[in-house]
Amino acid sequence: MNNQDLLNIAREHGSPVYVYDAEVIVAQYQRLVSAFDKAKNLRIHYAVKALSNISILKLFKQLGAGLDTVSLQEVELGLAAGVDPKKIIFTPNGVSLEEIEKVAEKGVQINIDNLSILEQFGSKHPNTPVCVRINPHVMAGGNANISVGHIDSKFGISIHQIPHILRIVENTGMNVNGVHMHTGSDILDIGVFLYATEILFETAAKFKDLEFIDFGSGFKVPYKEGDVSTDIEDLGAQLSERFNKFCKEYGRDITMAFEPGKFLVSESGQFLAQVNVVKQTTSTVFAGIDSGFNHLIRPMLYGSYHGIRNISNPDGKNRFYSIVGYICETDTFANNRQIAEITEGDILSFSNAGAYCYSMASNYNSRYRPAEVLWYNGKSHVIRERETMADILKGQVQVNFEESVTE
Length: 407
Fold this sequence. Notes:
Blueprint: H1 3-13, E1 17-21, H2 22-35, E2 42-47, H3 54-63, E3 66-69, H4 72-80, E4 88-90, H5 97-105, E5 109-112, H6 115-124, E6 130-135, E7 157-158, H7 162-172, E8 176-180, H8 190-204, E9 212-214, H9 232-250, E10 255-258, H10 262-265, E11 269-280, E12 285-289, H11 298-302, E13 308-310, E14 318-324, E15 332-340, E16 347-350, E17 371-376, E18 379-384, H12 389-393
Parallel strand pairs: 1-17, 2-3, 2-10, 3-4, 4-5, 5-6, 6-7, 6-8, 8-9, 9-10, 12-14
Antiparallel strand pairs: 1-11, 11-12, 11-16, 13-16, 14-15, 17-18
Helix pairs in contact: 2-9, 6-7, 8-9
């Protein structure tokens, strides 16, 4: 997609709007598969939570990917997209036994991350294969809110509780067919990640009927020019060699699994918004857009960086702007960012909008959620319509206050 393509989409479908480039998604998926091509058996489960539009799920199905899900609803979306339930893994946190049982009934691979549910599920369903999520107590991730493998994390069963897991397995006779970890998002130091995998290999050796080891994901993508990212090729070469060695020691070949989300879709996305007002104050020039953290919350929630380009005036002289939204609270996308000169009515494009943007959007301030557009084979395809007031009102039940209330 070039700037004119994006401007045409904004003109045709309105602003704000999310746009995803299918070619980028395909290229990222193929890059990941290629990086781990030395592993005999590889399975990629796309993390649905990153971008859950059913057309995106169908695209990953076409590529041969499975799905990583965290809710019953995500499982149902995957099944609606035609994904084989055997290629879907369910990795929830803190959900009820009832929800896990409903998912298990659909033939989906279950992944359990706490001792209580593991024992309850194993006692009731000893013949249903279960993966166990381990917390390796390794700190990884670019932000405290997305680092989930450290000792204070609520995720996974502590490696110090492995004896408890083994006792539950023995007492229930349950079938553990996989082990799993996820250290966090935005992994940069592959040495730290590889250290965590050694802990997982050591844990895996304690289970005799494994079909797969799931190494999670969290691979970092670049957010700005010159930004560093996970060296996926180096990681692939080193981890594949180590995995093959483990399989030889284990006595048979099992599957290497990953569950990337952001890595596959982040760079495919552009979020387009129109400038409503350019406001000069005594110290700052604000560019106020027709959106806010109700549509792109990551900068406010995580301090995440999104590149911002003025695609209406790409060759203009750079000036410093603070890009802000229309929410009546702190709603700043960027402070004092150099951007080509902005005038009211220009369209700004936010990069890395493919992951955790629409999926974390809301109707705060009773604003509509924007449309989603997929750029595929050189054409734009609406894959989700812009909401209307009917969508805001749907599900609301109005009380009749016409009759006076009497005591």
